[in-house]
Amino acid sequence: MIEFKDVIKEYPNGFRAVDNLNLTVHDGEICVLIGPSGCGKTTALRMVNRLIDVTRGEILIDGQPNDEFEPEILRRQIGYAIQQIGLLPHMTIRDNVAIVPRLLDWDEDRIRQRVDLLLDMVGIDPSIHGDKYPRQLSGGQQQRVGVARALGADPPLMLMDEPFGAVDPITRAILQEEFLQIQQEVSKTIIFVTHDIDEAIYMGDRIALLRAGRLVQYDSPDDLLAKPRDDFVREFVGADRSLKRLHLISVKDSMINNVPRCAQGASLDELAQCMDEHRANNVFIIDENSGKLLGWAERSAVESGAAPEEVINYAPTSIAVAEDATAREALSVLLSHSFDLTPVIDANGILTGGVSIQRLQDLVEAPGIHAAAQRERGQ
Amino acid sequence: MSQAKTAPAPGFGQRLPYIALFWLLTTLLIYAVGQQTVTLHDQEKFIGDFDFAVEQVEGENRLIFSLTAGTFLYGVTPEVILPVPTGRFSRGDENAPQVADVLFDALDSIREITIEARTITVVYDSDMEAEQVRSRLRRPVNNAVANDRGTITAEVSQAAEKTIEFSTSDDRFRYAQYQPALVESIEEYDSRTAAEAGSDLARFIVAESRPVESLRLEPTRLVVGYAESAALEPLARNLREILNDFHPRASLAPDLWLLTAAPEIIPPLLAIAVEPLKTGVPLFLFTLLMVAVEGGIFFVAREGKNSLLIHLVHIASVFLLFWSILGHEPLWDAILHAIFPTSAQLVHPQGTVIVFAAQHLELVLTSSIYIISTGLFLGVMVTRENFREFLPLVNNVVNGGQTVPTLAIVAIMAPIIGLGFMPAVVALIAYGLLPVVRNTIAGIESVSVSIVDSARGMGMTSQQILLRTEFPIASRIIMAGIRTSMVINIGTATLGAFVGSGGLGIPIASGLSMTVDAFILLGAIPAALLAILTDYVLGRLEVVLTPRGLLIET
Questions:
Q1: How many helices (H) and strands (E) does chain B have?
Q2: Letter string b/e over residues B300-323, b meaning 16 or more CB atoms within 10 A of that residue's CB
Q3: Distances from the Cα of A186 to the Cαs of A83, A118, A156, A179, A182, in angstroms?
Q4: Pairwise CB contact (< 8 Å): A51 & B6
């Protein structure tokens, strides 16, 4: 547990980078510090491992003030990853990951095992890349090594300053997801600095929004989006906060099970009847035996009286969303097709339900479900 | 993705066969040249051939060879110290000794010089102040007599007018005279076995001439005892040939000259270690050994491991080869004779090339040790947080050191420290500091802030950050600075000759003042070679000392 108690950082010129910060980060939680440039989020982070000294107030780590330790001793107990990664270019990947264990005088066998384990964990094959040098790896791989290095000596606490900031959005998304999976395993207490609200919402268990050194709001991502405390927060999380909330919900949580569906080979009448029953303008065609989604038919086509085979469009994957996708993706599919309902399929391609615009609206307006949804998704 | 570029640093392993080939060719060349004999061309340092008067001692099996003309033993100063003849001399006397001649030349108004055992009295005619005459004559007297056994004082006589008296604390005035000599000091061998264990010349004589049974070698005389059965005439002729074979010609198959030609430059401890080697390792055997060594290294390190040891072996052997060739005086004589066929003087009379080169290297190494330690210290200091404010100051001082001409620094230092080695070293330090300091600063500042930050964040102490992070990453730039500094240093060190620091500047300076072009080249060529070699050696070290991870281009 990390506690900021009335922490103030004041520079000699009187500028207060951090002003009276009170914050508690519980064990096993990812606390995201976010805010505009110069809001003091990095300063706050760097005060934890004493890269910057606190002017007033104190920071407690598991109840102990952090200035009771020698700075170097303290830092060796705290994982540290930064945006520029800072891998030492003259050391191999293995040696980079082994830096902190070596500083702690672990024996070489243990270091070797630990390093290979960590590299495996972050998705770097130690037998291929272990003896390479940082410059031989891509940006994404370097970020992974950076994370592995921060985990080096298995510190209970980690400080991460935009650790995925230097890679392209696609790689970043992958790294974020993988990191959350790692966090499931290792369950560290993490302070995570970012300026990207999407990343904050995706990664954070709790988000601390800072402005000019002051804590503006400290809440779960869902509450931050649903109940912004003031205009600043509202502006910061963006006009698309509803969309962002959708990001927090999985399709599985938001879908309805009762969707218009007909087996392949149904007559035009049966198709029309199905649509009428659901008051829908389209119907999904499934395989009779397996329940797999095969395609769909439009009301206009059905009513035109063409042969059933011509009425059905076969393109199941392009119109469906997966069960484990976010509600936001479902919305995206909804917008790009003229369906009332986007079909949802499971990992085997079986139609399990659908998501409608109306349903999404309801979800965004009703607070509360998201936290539960996210927790469920996390597990 | 730059994964494909996993090639190791410049593959030394792959180049090894070529390096072995280089040694092999060098071996063949040196061996081939070693089969030749050359005549020495310098007319002062390697004069003529021996000529002897031979006489037989009545009733004994003994021949006496008396040296009437000829060269002296290579490397031996051809001087004998003799008493100055006494007497009263006036201008134009045929039998006036050298000292008197010198004094008569120095001042036209000298009338009479009286030389006694411990005093020289000079009587002159001019109206000059006595004090002025005294100071005018002081130096010529000092130059003309060998005064290393006593000090010479000069006084204006109180007893007589227009008279200066010189006196020596030695028991008498002596002078040094050029004298060709067979050997430096007397050697006596009363049997062949004794001679076989004796000096080079003694061994040579008994090996070449079977009837010789005893030997006495004196600077100007050779006394040979021979077997009764020997035919006298052929023996005398044979010995004459032997002596001439031994002295005026030198083989071009040298020993490791580092060990034999300049033993005085080998530190005492090392000298004990190399003592067994000193008795002749022909250079071609050494290069042949290197073929085996390089071949062995290639076999062991086929994978191209860039081990420091391999490079050091390589560097040391190239240096030994270079040094051996540098120390080969007959080679320099031949080279310079080829360039200046008409020049009477070729190799410098005051020393051998290797002695100058050794002094030069000493100058360069001493100053470089100071430069590197000071430069690194300053560079590291001003990049520390606490001393950063001194950065502009250090920059300016160091820049200033290189702006002021070296000769000016030498000239300023001379009155303060005096002449000799140290003022030259100080000037070289002032001049050579800039590249080291500047590159150290640049190297350390090239380490990105994020790397230092993450190192600190991981819990490295500032010392660990410096040694494990900043230095390795900056090493290449720092080494480049040291390399530049040392190479410049070698050129600049030739100026040290002007304050008597020794070194390769001596032949250059005296060549310029005496207008002997050969001397200039004798200093310039080895200095240039030394600079090239140093650049090569440090270039190698730079590659080896740069961590592999930094050699990968992104």
A1: 20, 14
A2: ebeebebeeebbeebbebbebbbb
A3: 21, 11, 9, 10, 6
A4: no
Residues of B with CB under 8 A from a CB of A: 1-3, 5-6, 448, 450-461, 464, 468-469, 472-473, 547-550, 552-554
Q: pLDDT tens digits for B400-454?
A: 877 888 778 777 877 887 777 888 888 889 888 999 999 999 999 999 999 999 9
- Give the model confidence (pLDDT) of B487-505 as tens digits: 999 999 998 888 888 889 9
ipTM: 0.75
A207-221 pLDDT per residue, tens? 999 998 899 999 988
**How many domains, in total, are found in chain B?**
4
| Cα torsion angle, B96, B102, B108, B110, sign | negative
Q: Do B207 and B113 have their domain in common?
A: no
Q: Tell me the domain boundaries of chain A.
A: 2-248, 252-365
Chain A CB contacts of B446 under 8 Å are none
8 A C-beta contact, residue A31 and residue A25: yes
Q: Would residue B151 count as lying in a domain?
A: yes
CATH 3.40.50.300 fits A2-248, yes or no: yes
Report the distance separating Cα A118 and Cα A145, nearest Å.
9
Structural domain boundaries enclosing B307? 12-41+254-326
From first CA to last CA, the distance across chain A in angstroms is 22
Closest residue of A to B1, CA-based? Answer: A138
Q: Which fold has domain A252-365?
A: CBS-domain (3.10.580)
Distances (CA, A) of A234 to A204, A240, B371: 18, 10, 63
Q: Are residues B169 and B20 in the same domain?
A: no
Residues forming beta bridges with residue B282, ordered by sequence position: B255
Considering only CB atoms, B549 lies closest to which of A49, A86, A91, namely A91
> Is B453 close to A86, i.e. CB distance below 8 A?
yes
